[in-house]
Give the backbone structure.
Amino acid sequence: MKKTIKDYDLGGKKVIIRCDFNVPVQNGIIKDESRIKASLKTIRYALKNNAKIILMSHLGRIKTEEDKQKYTLKPIAESLSKHLRKKIIFIDETHGPKLEKAIKNMKEKDIILIENTRFEDLNGKKESNNDKNLGQYWASLGDIFINDAFGTIHRSHASNLGIASNIPSGLGFLVESEIKKLTKLTKNPKKPYTIILGGSKVSDKIGVINNLITQADYILIGGGMAFTFLKAAGFGIGSSLCEKEKIPFCKEMLDKYSDKIILPIDVITATEIKENVQTNERFLGEIAEEEIGLDIGPKTVEVFKQYLDDCKTIFWNGPLGYFEIKAFSNGTKKIFDIIVQTKAYTVVGGGDTARAAVTFNYQDKVSHVSTGGGAALAYLEEKELPALSIINEK
Ligand code: ADP
Ligand code: MG
């Protein structure tokens, strides 16, 4: 078991909390504060226990000097200040005398927010390549390191792996809770267990497929990735998404797991991807050369329902159609309707799938929407995650 923030005596200590404040910002306005709200529990706990709190996060990608203006953490400091009803000392640099002096002058319950860790990427990708000296330097600013950034748990950066390599470490409440919820899927999930997979590409999901297929009873495949499988099964797919080089992989999976993999039997097609386009419902074998498959059809929804109704565990990654356009959003919405009516433990993960859950207002009706995107998938693949492994054991 990993140590958590609760395993440390925080009183008077300088506690570095690596948060995930990677929120959508447009012209200095935060468009969605959910990640900020999700970080408050850990920060409040550190406040209550009289820590000197040093917050760090990345935001966006920093490739040019201009990106710095776009991705400053200043708006995050204002948002945090509003939620915590407390002054946040924002330091507009990631290293240097100003930062060091501010930390030296800290009193208990003070909160400092350091500028975007990825500003260090302009200086030879020091943050993203886990530069040893940078990790050591940041660690030297604190006494204890708490990793509460689930969204980057699969990355080996100076601001997570680097710092944790140098000072005592533990997990924050957000990371602890994500792991607890996702572990229910990897360690003896309650059966029957069905996985729903969609999204655009097979190649993004090979690790997940390989790892989860052995644990699940059924895998229902929709979205863009279904078409490479359908092609591998010998069906015409018109102009739908197809990853030719992945056809052999799909064939192998279909042979090996013929009783587990369930493919669509009908799809919604159009000749263009745009609003108000004319759509057609096609059974397999009916898709014309110029047509693109953009959603699962109503008969497929009925088939998928049979594999979901009596489930005890459901994991869903990848929208089942091009849900950003209304005409192709029905499959995804209908499957949400079905899973929230089951008695199953339902977990939704993946950046776009989580976005679909919020867009169609199902985020509070499923058991868990992972905040992690790629991190959730990496965790479920049971890959080694160095930024997690490095955290001290109890
Ligand atoms: P996640 O981020 O949840 O892991 P992906 O990134 O794999 O999901 O895929 C999401 C994208 O897949 C969505 O933007 C959606 O429009 C697209 N998509 C779903 N079905 C299709 C399809 N049939 N054709 C093309 N794109 C699709
Ligand atoms: Mg995505």
In short: Residues 198-200, 204, 223-224, 241, 293-294, 317-319, 321-324, 350-353 surround adenosine-5'-diphosphate (ligand 1) (CB under 6 Å).
